[in-house]
Specification:
Oligomer: single chain
Shape: elongated
Order of helices and strands: HEEEEHEEEEE
Number of helices: 2
Strand order of the largest sheet: 2-3-4-5-6-7-8-9
Helix content: 10-25%
Radius of gyration: 22 Å
Strand content: over 45%
Length: 190
């Protein structure tokens, strides 16, 4: 009888401790205080601008990053290196079906699928990036200091059927070619 009581107590303790897991905390991104800058490159130069986060969250366990998800408002694409008529034309073109087709695809998203600490404040992240309804894996590094996170992502637009001026889809573009990879530089407040 004593032996079975001891085994029963051990099982109860095991079950109790097994289900007292570490709490995950969602840190909501302050979208108005966060910034996402895009930069695209062509044979004859580059253009850059901003795009807004609609929502975002970082998931933490004991102050360590373990997950995250973001929704990007594709209708918010702006150009910051041009003014006047050329600024308006480029913004309209980027929102058109030639590029991101924001009328049919007003949102893009990023969901972390794997997070590994690489140093004290840095994490190697793999995630699923969805643009124009097409999802592909992406890897990047994110640094977190206090309530601020920074990351730089290099995105291959050809994987998301963004074809305009791409040598992946068209020949003989010469100096009209636009490189497939563009950058997103983020500074996120949470």
């Amino acid at each position: 009888m004593r032996k079975s009581v001891g085994i029963t107590l051990a099982l109860i303790a095991f079950v109790a401790f097994s289900f007292t897991g570490i709490d995950r905390v969602k840190k909501m991104v302050k979208t108005n205080d966060s910034e996402v800058i895009w930069k695209g490159y062509k044979v004859t130069g580059s253009h850059e601008g901003t795009i807004a986060l609609e929502t975002g969250e970082l998931i933490m366990e004991e102050d360590e990053l373990v997950g995250g998800r973001f929704v990007i408002d594709m209708t918010s694409i702006t150009v910051t290196d041009l003014e006047g008529e050329y600024k308006g034309k480029l913004e309209g073109h980027l929102k058109s079906d030639d590029f991101f087709g924001v009328q049919d695809h007003p949102k893009a998203s990023l969901v972390f699928t794997n997070v590994e600490a690489s140093s004290k404040n840095a994490y190697n992240i793999t995630g699923d990036l969805t643009i124009k309804g097409i999802t592909n894996p992406i890897s990047f590094t994110m640094s977190i200091y206090g309530n601020k996170a920074t990351a730089a992502l290099k995105i291959d637009r050809s994987k998301y059927n963004v074809r305009y001026g791409s040598t992946s889809f068209f020949d003989n573009l010469k100096d009209k070619a636009i490189y497939d990879e563009f950058d997103l530089i983020t500074e996120i407040q949470f």
